[in-house]
TrEMBL record:
Name of the protein in question: 3-keto-alpha-glucoside-1,2-lyase/3-keto-2-hydroxy-glucal hydratase domain-containing protein
Pfam family, one: 3keto-disac_hyd
Domain of life: Bacteria
GO molecular function, one term: hydrolase activity
Taxonomic placement: Bacteria, Pseudomonadati, Rhodothermota, Rhodothermia, Rhodothermales
Domain 3-keto-alpha-glucoside-1,2-lyase/3-keto-2-hydroxy-glucal hydratase: from-to ranges: 21-272
Amino acid sequence: MLAGCGGGPRAAAEADGAEAWTPLLDAELSEWRTYLSFRHAPGYAGEPPVGADGQPVAPVGYDTDPDGVFSVVMEDGEPVLRISGEVYGSVFTRREFADYHLRLKVRWGERVWPPRTELLRDSGVLYHSVGEPGVDWWRSWMLSQELQVMEGHMGDYWTIASSAADIRAFPPEGDLDPIASVRQPFRPFGGGSPNGGFCLRSADHESPPSEWTELELIAVGDRSVHVVNGHVVMVLARSRAVVDGVEGPLTRGRVQLQSEAAEVYYKDVEVRSLARMPDAYAGYFDQP
């Protein structure tokens, strides 16, 4: 930067090789497709759902939404995505993304559905999504990495299907879950790791339930950062997955927004390409 020139977000973005923001949400959901699986009942244990006759029930499928699980409402002239949560599934981007910065805002609705009527409200941002939906335990989503969207757990990590990653985190101990910490070394999660396939975010930075929470995902190469309301809550590296019996990098894919038994709203969904990991986050990947 030339001497005497001002700084600020625009200058920082240019220094990081970031392109302009591209909105992904409009009234027609033109950038998205949908997939719906099942109305899971209490007691679901991972087995294929069956009907009253004991025969397997087919998933609802692609781009079919008879109950209006996904809809767009207008607030202050801007499109807001409503996900009712009544049926498990996702709305997912038509395009795949790699080396990008995603940001969006999320707010909880009031409705909850079986099998989570007595549990925390739940959704999620699934990134680097590849293949067909239905490969996970809930038979609803694509192989991917999850940035958790849950009451009190914004920014947690879950593996989806055969994905795995290394996370700066304290290891699990006894009944204690692993918890992310930038002061800790990278540890493996998923892929049969003794650390399991789940890691808690470093701290709770969620907004009050009636307010919007801003989430950001910075994903460059096999590295990613989960950010909640401006706070880094998770640092991940070596994103990978087993596909057709072979483990390899998982560094690009679609973005899924989950329908998971709770009403939730998303807005200001936008993405920009990155040439490299932004300076604000690059230092988190220096080994201790």
